[in-house]
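WARN no homologs supplied; continuing
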Amino acid sequence: MEPIIEFKDFSFKYRAQTEDTLKHISLKIYPGEKVLIIGPSGSGKSTLAHAINGLVPFAFPGKIQGNYSVNGLSPAELGIFGLGKMVGTVLQDTDGQFIGLTVAEDIAFAMENDRVAQDEMVRRVDAAAEMVSVQDLKHRSPRELSGGQKQRVSMAGVMVDEVPILLFDEPLANLDPATGKSAIDLIDQIHRKREATILIIEHRLEDALYRDVDRIILIADGQIAADMKPNELLCTDLLVRNGIREPLYISALRHAGCSLQPETHPQHIESMDLTAYREKVKDWFDQVKLPVRKPDAAPELEVKGLSYSYIPGIPVLEDINFTIHKGEMISIVGKNGAGKSTLSSLICGFMRPDQGMIRLAGQDIADWSVKERGERIGLVMQSPGQMISKPMIYDEVALGLTVRGVPEAEVKRRVLEALRTCGLYQMRNWPVSALSFGQKKRVTIASILVMQPEIMILDEPTAGQDYRHYTEIMEFIRKINEESGITIIMITHDMHLMLEYTDRAIVIADGHLLADDSPANVLTDEVISDKAFLKKTSLYDLAHKCGIEDASAFAERFIYYEKMHPVTME
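OK structure emitted
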C-alpha cells in the first residue's frame, strides 16, 4: 500500500528564524490510519500539521529541504487550495473557523465556493450534520452554541468536501471532560464510517486515548522522538522525558514500582491486565500516609443565595452558596454552559446578581465598582483575545501597573519576574501576534500575576498548555498561594489540575451547586461526575481493579505522593 502522506528527510525553517523548526523528518502515514501526534509546545508538531494542510509554506513562508507528498502529489504543485481538497482541518479555536450566519450556512461554505448545485448541497449538509448530531441546530447561529456543539459544527464543515484526510488541532482544548470524551468518540465514529485518514494533535494524552489509535508520533525538538503503538510507548519513559503527561493510572503504577509490559495492554485501564501489578499497588497504597489536614483559615469570599438570569425566568445560576477561606486553592468545575464563568463575572462585578450577596473579607461588596473589586480580585479570562489590548508582550504585562502609576523600575522588575515564571522571558520584546494560543494564554496570566491581588480567579488557566508549561505555571501559582497567601480560584475542565492543585472542588451543574467536596471525592463519585459532565478519574478504575475499595483515599494518596516525588523532565 502506498502512503497517503510521506516525508523524506524533510526540514523546514520559518523565514524569520535562524534555525530549522523541523529537522530531517522521515515519516509515512497510510490510508485509513488514525494517528495521534504529541509533543511539547514549540516541538514542531503544529508546523508538521501545517505542512500537511498547506499553511506551510503558503501562509507561513520559509525554506524547505527534502521532499514530501500528500496523496501521492507534491504540495508545491497542488497549492493551498489543492491541498484543501485533500485535507480538512478542525482548528483548536473553533470561533476562528466560522464563516456563515447559521450552522447550515457554515457547513455549506466550502460547497458554495465550488458552485455545487443547491439540491446536492442540501443533501450533503444534512448528511454531515446528522453524522455529528447537529441536525437540530442547523438554523442556529454558531456563536450561540456550546464549546462541544461548535466542535461538531467545525467537523461537519470539513466533512462535506469528503476529503480523504482529517486533521484535528487540539480538539479537546476548550471542552469539559465528558464533552471531550464525546468528541474523541465522534472522531472514532467518523474514522470508521468514512474510512478517512485521521490525524489528531493533542496535549491531553489520556483523554485522546479514550478510543484506540494506530500509532503515536512523538515530536521533540523538531524531530521524531518516537513512532510507536500506544501499548509500546506507554511502557517507556519517553513521554515524561519529553514533557508529556502520562495517564494518571500509568503514573500510579510506576509509583508502586511496577515495570509495565506491552502485553498487559496499558492503553486502556478498563481492559488492562493488572494481574502482575495488583499486590504492588496495594502495598504502595498501605505505605503512603497523608499529613494531618490544617484547620480552615478565616473566610475570605462568601457567596450567599446567589441567583442570576440573562433572560427573566430562565436562571443561569440559582441559590448558590459557598465560602472560600483565606489562602485556599479551589476549583470550580462543571460542564460547558453550567454557569461557571457567569459566577466569576458576578464576583468581579461585571454583572449584578438578581438575588443574593457576595462578601469579601466580611464586607458586602454589592456597591463596589468593577475598579474597586479589581484592586483586590484579579481575573484571567478564558480567551486571551478578551484581555490583550497592547501589541507588544512587555507592554501588555506592564499595563495594569503603568495605569496605576507604579514607578518604572518596580514595573520592570515585576514584569520580568512574571514573564520568567510563565516561560515568556525570551519573548519579552516580541509582538503578541507572533505567539501561539497557549503562549497568549500565558501572557494574560502574567498580566494578572504582576498585580499581586488578594484573590486570583483563573478561567481555564491550562487550556492549550503542554505538561512542562502547565507544571511551571501551576507550581508558580501554588508558590504564590503558599508564600503570599493569595487565594486562588480556578474555573477548569482539567481534572489533573483539579486533583493535583486544589483543596476543594465546587461543582456546578445546570445552574445549581451540586457538590462542595475534595477533588478526590468528586472524581470518584460516578453520580456527581455524570451530572456535572466530569470524567471519573482513571485512578478510580485502577483502585477497584486492584481490590482497593476506597478509591477516594487512593486518589488522595496518589496526589500527595506526586507532590512529594515530583517528576523531573529533561
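The chain has a mean pLDDT of 89.
OK
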